[in-house]
Inverse folding.
């Protein structure tokens, strides 16, 4: 082949997302789903999830319901029947020597997830959504490999995209949007540190503008956004170098060493026939009743994209604020509960929530669900600011105290004496004191140094103990300085 310059190569990326479903029991047995990062190893197992001879699987109806929720939220078509299959391969963490998954007849097909892109919004096609069981977990220590089977058999939904992603930014937007969707549906916690969502990326390169697909590689088991994006950047650079040198990319499966920041070859890329798929003989075809599917559809919450659009329209906030507020269902719910309180500005609620309150939550490593600041309290705080009772500086002090103690903002204002000073006569007195105290600066102002007006404003605010009403202070100060300028001109 003729080598092309590095800038002429365009990545083509498809993503396979494996998400654990938040069921109480495993996919094909009654064992409890436990937190594999904390539970004692091998304490939630039975003959079914350990693959012992004579054991028979039974389909978890709640797992099917959750997977249907995902499929419907992605706009997929659900065939009337799907079939579980055995995916045969041998690995220490796969106790049966095969995985029960779905292949030729998946649960759902042909969906769509629209994500923000550099210039607009981009539709990413979903090829399929199917159910399967998770494997165990390997630990490599001191030359030995240990296996914890607590995770074996945990229900997974696998979401496979078409190769519609052509940049790392697109991949990040798609993965972030999918995680948000799963959390909105309450079928997955989204806790990346616990491995409840894992990614596998298929990457190839092609000449820019071409519609042909190049030879792809697959990077397995990426369990964080950071790892996924680093692995993609590495592989795009590697393949670009190979192709620019006039060589061929080898189709293979890669692992990712996050510590070293490199991908490494694991094996030649498998094809479907390598897994010797065949229908699971111990499970009947999965037939879904149309009425049941419609009941699930009716139970779906308002999804992130629709909520984003409504927030912009209904509350008159920017697209940026709407994106921040709708990224998490709990945040969107909190915002609406506060914004619908009487006599408050929704936009001001949005700014205080995404600014000061988010900052306090981040510092405390807390979340809205455990915060002492209820939506009604945040609305009360905003109303105190908007009504002129306190200024923005005092409001930050009030919010911090409410966050710490759970006291209502109005009570904090009274107990700390933070009510805003707005009396014109008192402010005139403070202005006069400041001007008298700084004759040199006043002389410079009279001589034409107009920028000192802002300096005088800061001095009056300080004299008011930070409680002064900025609007009243600015107005009374401008009047006083104007009078000083007129007197100086007439003298």
């Amino acid at each position: 082949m003729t080598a092309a310059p590095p800038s002429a190569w365009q990545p083509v990326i498809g993503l396979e997302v494996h998400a654990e479903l938040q069921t109480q029991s495993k996919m094909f047995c009654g064992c409890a789903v436990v937190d594999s990062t904390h539970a004692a190893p091998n304490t939630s197992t039975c003959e079914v999830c350990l693959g012992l001879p004579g054991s028979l699987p039974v389909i978890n109806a709640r797992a099917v319901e959750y997977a249907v929720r995902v499929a419907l939220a992605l706009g997929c078509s659900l065939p009337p029947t799907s079939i579980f299959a055995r995916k045969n391969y041998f690995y220490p963490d796969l106790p049966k020597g095969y995985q029960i998954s779905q292949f030729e007849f998946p649960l759902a097909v042909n969906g769509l997830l629209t994500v923000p892109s550099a210039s607009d919004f981009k539709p990413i096609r979903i090829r399929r959504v199917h159910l399967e069981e998770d494997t165990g977990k390997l630990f490599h220590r001191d030359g030995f490999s240990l296996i914890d089977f607590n995770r074996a058999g945990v229900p997974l939904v696998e979401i496979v995209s078409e190769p519609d992603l052509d940049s790392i930014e697109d991949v990040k937007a798609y993965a972030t949007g999918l995680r948000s969707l799963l959390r909105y549906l309450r079928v997955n916690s989204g806790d990346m540190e616990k491995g409840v969502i894992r990614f596998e990326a298929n990457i190839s390169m092609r000449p820019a503008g071409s519609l042909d697909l190049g030879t792809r590689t697959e990077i397995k088991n990426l369990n964080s956004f950071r790892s996924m994006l680093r692995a993609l950047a590495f592989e795009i650079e590697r393949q670009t170098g190979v192709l620019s040198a006039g060589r061929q990319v080898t189709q293979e499966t890669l692992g990712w060493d996050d510590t070293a920041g490199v991908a490494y070859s694991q094996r030649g890329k498998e094809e479907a026939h390598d897994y010797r798929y065949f229908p699971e003989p111990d499970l009947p075809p999965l037939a879904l009743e149309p009425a049941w599917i419609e009941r699930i559809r009716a139970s779906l919450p308002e999804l992130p994209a629709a909520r984003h659009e409504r927030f912009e329209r209904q509350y008159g906030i920017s697209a940026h604020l709407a994106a921040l507020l709708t990224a998490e269902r709990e945040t969107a719910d909190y915002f609406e509960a506060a914004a619908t309180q009487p006599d408050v500005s929704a936009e001001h609620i949005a700014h205080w929530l995404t600014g000061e309150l988010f900052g306090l939550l981040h510092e405390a490593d807390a979340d809205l669900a455990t915060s002492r600041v209820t939506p009604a309290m945040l609305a009360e705080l905003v109303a105190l600011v908007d009504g002129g009772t306190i200024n923005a500086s005092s409001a930050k002090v009030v919010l911090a105290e409410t966050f710490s103690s759970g006291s209502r903002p109005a009570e904090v204002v009274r107990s700390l004496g933070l009510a805003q000073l707005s009396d014109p006569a008192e402010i005139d007195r403070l202005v006069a004191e400041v001007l008298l105290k700084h004759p040199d600066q006043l002389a410079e102002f009279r001589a034409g140094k107009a920028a000192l007006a802002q300096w005088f404003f800061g001095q009056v605010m300080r004299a008011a103990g930070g409680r002064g009403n900025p609007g009243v202070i600015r107005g009374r100060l401008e009047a006083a300085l104007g009078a000083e300028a007129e007197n100086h001109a007439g003298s």
